[in-house]
Amino acid sequence: MAEGYVEYRNLRKSFGGLEILHGVDLTIPEGAFAVLVGPSGCGKSTLLRMTAGLENVTSGEINIAGRLVNNVHAKNRGIAMVFQSYALYPHMSVEDNMSFGLKMRKTPLQLITDRIKRAASILKLGPMLDRLPSQLSGGQRQRVAMGRALTREPEVFLFDEPLSNLDAKLRVEMRAEIKALHQRLKTTTIYVTHDQIEAMTMADIVVVMHDGRIEQVGEPLAIYDRPANLFVAEFLGSPAMNLIPGTIAQDADGRCVQTEAGMRLPLDSGAKGTVGQKVVYGIRPEHLQLDPAGDLPIRLTLVEPAGWETHVHADLGGQIVRMVSTKRVAQRAGDSTTAKIDATRAHLFDAATGNRL
Amino acid sequence: MSHTTPMVEDGPTGADRLKPFVPYLLVLPGLLFVMGILGYAVVGGIILSLNETDMFMNKTFVGLKNYIDVFADPRFQDAMVRTLSFVVISIVLGIFMSMSFALVLYKVVRGRRFFRGLSLVPYFVSGIATAVMFRFIFTTSGGFVNTVLAQLGLPAQSWLGDPTLAFAVAIMANCWFMVPFASLILLGGLQTIDKDLYDAAAIDGANPIQIFFRITLPLIKPMLGVSLIWVSYISFSTFDIVLALTSGGPLKATELVSIYMYELAFQQLNFGQGAVLMVVLLVFNTVLSLIYIKIFVMGDRRHSEAGK
Asked: For the whole model, what pTM was predicted?
C-alpha cells in the first residue's frame, strides 16, 4: 500500500467570515505527480499555498512525509515552489537566484556549487548563470524558477500555474519538460492549473476542484472516461462533453433518453437509471459522429477544419452539439445530415443532483 | 516633381522631417521657463559672488575675493561644519524614519490611502508654522515636553536655550518636515515589489531582516536614491524652520550656512559674500545628487544591462 506522502484531512480555510475551502480530504502518494485543476476561485491555489506554508490553516490537518506541518514554517516544510510570476529576484543573477535559498540555510559552499551545476545541466542553464532575469526570455525564466526549486532538493515540488505566462508553443514544450523532469527525479509534485489539458497530459493523479471542494480524484483517463458528476464532465475534455437534458424512456429496442425536443438518444443495455427518470445525457464530441446511416437528424452550424481533426458544431433538436472527427468533413455549415452516437460511450447524470448514475 | 531627378515615391515631406523634433519642441517652452527662472537665479548668484555690490546695486568686479574672504571667515567655517553635521544626522535619522514609516504604511491594509494622505500633512504645513509649533512643544516654561517631563518627575530642560539641545530640536523639526515626502517615495518603491518575491524568500528560508536587506532594499534602490536627494537637499537648504525656531542661536549653535547666508546678504547687506554661500550650497547639493544618481539610480542592476 502506498503511504500517503502529502495528506490533507478535513482541511478548511476561511478568509474573514468567508470559507473558501470546505473540508478537503486528499492523499497524494510518494513520487506522484498530482495536478489540482479547476476554474479560478475554486481554492486550488489556496490549497497549494497552505501546503507551502504561505497561508494559515483554519482547521484540519496537512501532513507532509508523515509529519503534521500545520504550524511548521514554510522554510522547514521540505518544499520548493515555482510561482506563476516566477518570482525571480530581479537584482540577482541566475546563479544567485538559485543559490539564495541554500545560502540562507548556510549550506556549505562546495555543496551549493555542486547543486547549481547539476540543476544547470538538467535544465540547460549553463550559459545563463551570470545573466539577470531581465535578460532572459519567458521560457528561460521559467527554467530558472525550476532550477531554484531543484537546487533545494525538496521532498515536494509545488507548482502554481507555472505555464500561464508562456505563449502556446512554449507552454507545450515546458509541459513536456516538466513531466520529463518529474520522471527523472520522481519527487512528489503538486501542480496547480486551470488548464484541463495540462492536467490530463501531466498528471498521475488529477484532483478536480470546484467551489472549495474536491469533485473527483483519479487517474486522468479514468476521470475522462467516467466523470463523477456534471461539473467534471463539462470541465475535463476539449471541446467539452455535450450535455443534453432528457428523460429515460422505453423504446422498442430497449431504453433510450428522450430529449425535450422529442429526439431519442440511444442507451447501452447496461446503462443505469429507470424509465421516467430525469437525466442529463452526456456524450463526448469524439463519440458523436457524422454518419449518413445515422438516425439523428442534425443541421451543421459551423465547420472548423483544424488539419488532422475537424470540429463540427451542429443543431440537434434545438441544442447545439459539438463533434470532433478525424475524417475530413465535406459538408458545410447549413447542410442537413444525420449523426450517430456510440451508445456504449454515453454518460448519464441525475438531472437533480448532477451525479453520475 | 522635378523633371531631371528620378521620381521619389513617398519622399519625406517637410512635416515628416520635423517629426523627430516634435517631442523636443513640445517640451521646449516648459524647459525654457524652468531654465530661465533657475538659470537666472544661478547665473545671477554667481555674478553676484564675483562682484562687490553696494546697496544701490552698483557692481564692481572683484574676482574671487569674496570666496577668499568667506573661506577665511571663522564664522563661515563653523557654520559649514555645523551644516555638515546637521545634514549627516538629518540624512541618517530622516531616512531611517522615512523607511520605518513607509514599511508601516505598506503593512497597513485597511485605510492605507487615508493614512498615506494623513502622513503628508506635515509636508503641507509651512516652515514658519512648523517652527512655531515646535517652539510651543519645546518652550521651557509650560511647553509640552517639559510638562510631560514634570508629570514623570523628571527635571525640565531648556530645550531651545541649550546649544546641544537646540541643535537636536532643529534636526527634529527638519525631519518632521521632510520625512513624509521621503516616506511616500519609499512607499511607492515598496509597492512596486512583486509580493511573490516575499513568498519565494520565505520558502527560501530568509528571515524578515534578511528579506529586508537582501530583497526589499536592493529593489527600492532607485527610490532610496531619490529620497536621499530630497532629504539631503532639504537639510542643506533648510532655512525658514531654523530661522523661526532659533534664529541661529543660542550662541550660534544652530547657525547653518543658509542662516549665515541670510545674515550676510540681508542683515549686513554683503551681497557678494552671501552669494558665495549660495554657490557653496549649490555645489554641495549638485555633487551629492550626482553621486546618489550614479550609485542608486544608474547603478541599479536590473536596468544597467537590460533592454539591449
From this structure: 0.81
